[in-house]
């Protein structure tokens, strides 16, 4: 929000307060000031001039030789290249030795052989941005008013001697998105009551607005307040200079005397308005409704918009003429031919306005105010002030009354707070009289009973609804810098890690020992990425006011964030990446009674590139499925879950490779997955082949794990036997190992797969798998008969249950 110090001074006595002091004080009381700009700073010797004579340059087809009266005895000759320069106009003149924007110095010189004593300036050359300059002067010089005195500095005429204070408005203080709101805020700080001029609306009582137009609102929730006023016999022309410069200083381009008034009232009241050309509506009816599927309209920017039921539209009873709260339609805009204006003043559903502006990428001063909230108590007042001002500037007449489709009755919100409660929160010792003085400064009506303040909050402060809000107001106006500071009190106790913290810390230590680096990703992402790699069905948890589309949904996995990190590294020629992250994911049940998300703590890994780098004696070895699975196996062994964790091949995860992905199960409950990213998914992220895993740490912590038991080293020798099997390629290592363990007896201590072969001399569809079995008895030396007996049982079970052939 840009605030004009001059404009603010019309409502408050700031004669003893400098713009810098005002900015500092407002920052201290809760509304941060980004900076102060004085438009005339850096400019000098720029005056009003009058073009007395203008003739074409003899040696140029676009230059003109002008004789300009700059308030001196003799005319000054200036060569000008502007297409709109002519005799009889008053212009901006930069004298020799002057400085224009960019610290550019203007000197006396010659142009194509003709002397030029300075320069006739455009607004751009005074530092105005192209997007705020009136279109009539966008490609040429600016015309000053005829009453401007030749030779005077232009700065006071253009309000360039003003101080423009830029406020950073937080969402809860949308009341400060208006000059009236800022005036009340500054008034509370300096203990003044803003003085706003009363609106003098002279209406034609012989007619009524309802004779011109009728208004109907289909759903009052979409437009709780909607009214139309009629101004007839208007003459469309440029606004007076004071209005144009005020808008330009606020960052708004002047258009004409009607549209400029709607923008002026927007800045003054914070109330968006829209002006229709009444004769172009094509109807005497206004219907506010939702858009229809595939319905179209052309907006003021000339774009054809395809509407949907999410959009609130203003129609002439049949076809849309405006996108409510966002942008008007091209067919009903104010032009030079307009003679009758239908002025809309309304309140629209903020969520719908937000969705519409986002859908069409149309962010405007109006839409942002409807989204954040407006003063519901001044909807009608703003419309009345605008109608009176349009009539004054255009020579028109306001038709009496207004045509109303919906009307909102605003009742003040009552909130209570006690002095003791406020002092307890703030650490102060404020007396009842001091609190009363603060509420009076804020312009809040109140009653006091035994130290309990019951405050009637005006509609302009819709952010105040609970006791804590009033305490914040007391603290702001009293002064945050005056609040006492104390050291914390109490006893200190020895801290310790919880089981969860200790478990996570151990996991991190192990992973970093494997050379994997920790990454921290955003918890907010897009809905598409949030749904990838998800281990359960869940609703997406969406933010109402996201910073951007890329940060609008809470994540339901950690892997998508790690893949973004991989993309960042690979794009910078770092191709060997090993990252892990421990963080929360957010799930939401499809139950209307449970609308809040719940969190789970997850661990995710991603590996890509080479596991071993090429050197003088070693070939490069890329990471593969077994690299990441081996890391997980070691984690499970170290944490005591190796006996209860199993892997099960799956093709159910569409973002993972169907032949290289497995669920991780803990006691037959899925707690994670491991595998290769699907090639199409890797292409979407623009990364090479990558392997990932994600684990639900809650699932691990909530399950029993095998106790760690210390055993004495046996004094009896172990016996090793190897067995080679020919099995169908569909038989898994897990099935073979489980069968061996089940039938080996109590002396089997370890089963190790040391060879897998498919190829020459092996039948198609078959594979050879070789295992090393270790037997031991801690109480006696194993004899040959015991081991042979165990081996026979194993071989028999493998043949009968899995169709294995012992080689």
Automatic annotation (TrEMBL):
- Domain named TRNA-binding: which ranges? 40-155
Domain of life the protein comes from: Bacteria
Its keywords, alphabetically, are: Aminoacyl-tRNA synthetase, ATP-binding, Cytoplasm, Ligase, Magnesium, Metal-binding, Nucleotide-binding, Protein biosynthesis, RNA-binding, tRNA-binding
Needed cofactors, names only, are: Mg(2+)
Primary localisation category: cytoplasm
Q: Where in the cell is it found?
A: Cytoplasm
> Is Iron found in the keyword set?
no
Q: According to its UniProt record, what is one Pfam family this protein matches? A: tRNA_synthFbeta
Q: Where does the B5 domain start and stop, copy by copy? A: 410-485
What SUPFAM superfamilies does its record include?
Answer: Anticodon-binding domain of PheRS, Class II aaRS and biotin synthetases, Nucleic acid-binding proteins, PheT/TilS domain, Putative DNA-binding domain
The record's annotation in InterPro entries points to: aa-tRNA-synth_II/BPL/LPL, B3/B4_tRNA-bd, DNA-bd_dom_put_sf, Fdx_antiC-bd, Fdx_antiC-bd_sf, NA-bd_OB-fold, Phe-tRNA-ligase_IIc_bsu, Phe-tRNA-ligase_IIc_bsu_bact
What residue stretches are annotated with the FDX-ACB domain?
Answer: 714-807
- Give the record's cofactor note, including how many are bound: Binds 2 magnesium ions per tetramer.
The positions annotated for binding Mg(2+) are: 463, 469, 472-473
Gene3D superfamilies for the chain:
3.30.56.10, Bira Bifunctional Protein, Domain 2, Ferrodoxin-fold anticodon-binding domain, Nucleic acid-binding proteins, Phenylalanyl-trna Synthetase, Chain B, domain 3
Reactions mediated catalytically: tRNA(Phe) + L-phenylalanine + ATP = L-phenylalanyl-tRNA(Phe) + AMP + diphosphate + H(+)
What GO MF terms are annotated?
phenylalanine-tRNA ligase activity
The UniProt subunit note reads as follows:
Tetramer of two alpha and two beta subunits.
Q: What is the name attached to this protein's record?
A: Phenylalanine--tRNA ligase beta subunit
Q: What is the lineage of its organism?
A: Bacteria, Bacillati, Bacillota, Bacilli, Lactobacillales
This chain is encoded by the gene named pheT
């Amino acid at each position: 929000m840009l605030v004009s110090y001059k404009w603010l001074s019309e409502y408050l006595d700031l004669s003893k307060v400098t713009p810098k002091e005002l900015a500092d004080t407002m920052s201290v009381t809760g509304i941060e000031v980004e900076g102060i700009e004085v438009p005339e700073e850096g400019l000098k010797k720029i005056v009003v001039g009058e073009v007395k004579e203008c003739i074409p340059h003899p040696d140029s087809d676009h230059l003109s030789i002008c004789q300009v009266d700059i308030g001196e005895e003799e005319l000054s000759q200036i060569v000008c290249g502007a297409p709109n320069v002519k005799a009889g106009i008053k212009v901006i003149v930069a004298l020799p030795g002057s400085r224009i924007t960019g610290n550019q110095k203007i000197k006396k010189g010659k142009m194509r052989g003709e002397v030029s004593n300075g320069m006739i300036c455009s607004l751009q050359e005074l530092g105005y941005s192209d997007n705020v300059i009136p279109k009539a002067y966008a490609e040429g010089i600016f015309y000053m008013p005829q009453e401007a005195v030749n030779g005077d500095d232009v700065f006071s005429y253009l309000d360039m001697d003003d101080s423009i204070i830029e406020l950073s408005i937080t969402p809860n203080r949308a009341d400060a998105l208006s000059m009236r709101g800022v005036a009340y805020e500054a008034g509370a700080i300096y203990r003044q009551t803003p003085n706003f001029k009363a609106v003098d609306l002279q209406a034609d009582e012989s007619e009524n607005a309802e004779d011109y137009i009728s208004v109907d609102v289909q759903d009052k929730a979409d437009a709780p307040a909607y009214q139309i006023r009629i101004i007839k016999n208007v003459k469309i022309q440029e606004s007076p200079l004071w209005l144009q410069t005020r808008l330009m200083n606020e960052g708004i381009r002047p258009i004409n005397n009607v549209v400029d008034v709607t923008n002026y009232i927007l800045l003054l009241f914070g109330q968006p308005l829209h002006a229709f050309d009444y004769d172009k509506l094509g109807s005497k009816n206004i219907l506010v409704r939702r858009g229809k599927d595939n319905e179209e309209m052309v907006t003021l920017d000339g774009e054809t918009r395809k509407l949907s039921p999410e959009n609130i539209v203003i129609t002439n009873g049949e076809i849309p003429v405006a996108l409510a709260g966002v942008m008007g339609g091209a067919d009903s805009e104010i032009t030079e031919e307009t003679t009758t204006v239908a002025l809309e003043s309304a309140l629209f559903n903020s969520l719908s306005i937000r969705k519409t502006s986002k859908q069409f990428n149309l962010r405007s001063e109006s839409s942002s105010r409807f989204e954040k909230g407006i003063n519901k108590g001044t909807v009608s007042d703003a419309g009345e002030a605008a109608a009176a001002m349009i009539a004054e500037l255009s020579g028109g007449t306001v038709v009496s009354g207004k045509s109303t489709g919906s009307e909102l009755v605003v009742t003040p919100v009552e909130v209570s707070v006690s002095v003791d409660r406020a002092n307890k929160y703030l650490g102060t010792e404020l007396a009842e009289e001091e609190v009363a003085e603060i509420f009076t400064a804020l312009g809040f009506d109140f009653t006091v009973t035994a130290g309990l303040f019951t405050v009637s909050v005006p509609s302009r402060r819709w952010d105040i609804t609970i006791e804590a809000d009033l305490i914040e107001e007391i603290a702001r106006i009293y002064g945050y810098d005056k609040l006492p500071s104390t050291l914390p009190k109490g006893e200190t106790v020895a801290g310790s890690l919880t089981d969860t913290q200790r478990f996570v810390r151990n996991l991190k230590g192990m992973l970093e020992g494997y050379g994997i680096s920790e990454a921290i990703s955003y918890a907010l992402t897009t809905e598409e990425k949030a749904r990838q790699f998800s281990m359960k069905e869940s609703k997406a948890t969406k933010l109402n006011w996201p910073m951007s589309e890329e940060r609008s949904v809470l994540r339901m996995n950690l892997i998508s964030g790690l893949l973004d990190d991989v993309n960042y590294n690979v794009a910078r020629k770092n191709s060997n990446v090993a990252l892990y992250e421990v963080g929360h994911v957010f799930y939401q049940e499809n139950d209307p009674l449970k609308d809040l998300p719940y969190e789970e703590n997850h661990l995710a890994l991603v590996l890509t590139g080479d596991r071993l780098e090429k050197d003088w004696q070693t070939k490069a070895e890329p990471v593969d499925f077994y690299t990441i699975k081996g890391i997980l196996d070691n984690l499970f062994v170290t944490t005591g879950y190796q006996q209860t964790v199993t892997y099960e091949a799956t093709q159910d995860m569409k973002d993972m490779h169907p032949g290289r992905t497995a669920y991780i199960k803990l006691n037959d409950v899925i707690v994670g997955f491991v595998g290769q990213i699907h090639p199409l998914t890797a292409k979407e992220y623009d990364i090479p082949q990558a392997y990932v895993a994600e684990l639900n740490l809650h699932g691990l912590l909530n399950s029993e794990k095998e106790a760690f038991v210390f055993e004495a080293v046996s004094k009896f020798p172990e016996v090793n036997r190897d067995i080679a099997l020919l099995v169908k390629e569909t038989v898994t290592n897990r099935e073979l190992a489980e069968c061996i363990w089940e039938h080996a007896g109590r002396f089997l201590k370890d089963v190790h797969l040391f060879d897998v072969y498919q190829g020459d001399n092996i039948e198609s569809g078959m594979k050879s798998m070789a295992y090393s079995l270790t037997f031991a008895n801690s109480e006696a030396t194993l004899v040959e008969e015991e081991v042979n007996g165990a081996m026979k049982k194993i071989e028999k079970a493998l043949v009968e249950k899995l169709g294995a052939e012992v080689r």
